[in-house]
Amino acid sequence: MQYTFRGSLLKEGAKMFISIPFNVWEVLGQKGLIPVNVTINDFNFECKLVPKGNGNYYIPIVKDVLKIINSSEELDISFEVISHLTRINNNSPYSIEDPIRKIDSIEIIKSGDRLCGQGCVAMLAGVSIDEVITLMKAKTSLSKVIEALDYYGIGHSDKMAYKLKKDHKLPKCCIINTSGHLILFYDGKYYDSSIGILEDFDLNKITGYLEIIL
């Protein structure tokens, strides 16, 4: 179903967006980050509607889209709900230059069993585990974790390092793979979202790690 309205570009800090003029909870019957296909003045793109609370939502406008639709006039806007984005990070409101936050501390976030990847992303992004689960669904593959990091504008190395060389130290921040279970290392501490902060960790269990660029 297509939802159509006219609206204008709004600015909040460095971010541009379009406010949706109806209660999304009531009209769409959905909550959380909602994947949609948007058309603005005949230009089409995918994104996720971003909640502002109490059913109020906005359409995030990233720089590449802004270059095409930038206008002080009212815009013809329509969107339809889709099952998922082509990629998690498609048309994210964040970027490497404008990430969700500067990582200078980590708070432990519990994710439960089989959601270790979502837990690592939530701790790095500083968002709730529910938000990351909505973003990633139940997929904890490393490729989906990387897509989620890209979505939040969190810098990382291009590929996993599969061996920690003897006498070498881990980077200040990285996601560690231990035979399929992911934990977060930051500034000398190990954060396991399934159990908490680890007092001790056997480096021999590491099967690979992805450096997070601070």
Q: What is the rounded Rg?
A: 19 Å
Give the quaternary arrangement of the chains: single chain
Q: Could you state the order of secondary-structure elements as H and E?
A: EEEHEEEHEHHHEEEEE
Tell me the domain tally: 2
Derived from helix and strand composition plus strand pairing, the structural class reads: alpha+beta
Distance between the termini: 42 Å
Q: In what range is the share of β-strand residues?
A: 25-35%
General form: elongated
Instruction: List segments where confidence is low: pLDDT < 50 over at least 5 consecutive residues.
Output: none
Can you tell me about this structure?
It is elongated and about 60 Å long. It has helices spanning 24-28, 63-69, 116-125, 129-136, 142-151; strands spanning 3-7, 10-12, 15-19, 34-40, 43-53, 56-61, 75-81, 173-178, 181-186, 189-192, 196-198, 208-211. The strands form two sheets. It has a seven-stranded antiparallel sheet. The protein has 214 residues and is of the alpha+beta class. α3 (116-125) packs across α4 and α3 (116-125) runs parallel beside α5. The N and C termini lie far apart (42 Å). It has two domains: 3-81, Beta Barrel (Elongation Factor Tu (Ef-tu), domain 3); 116-211.
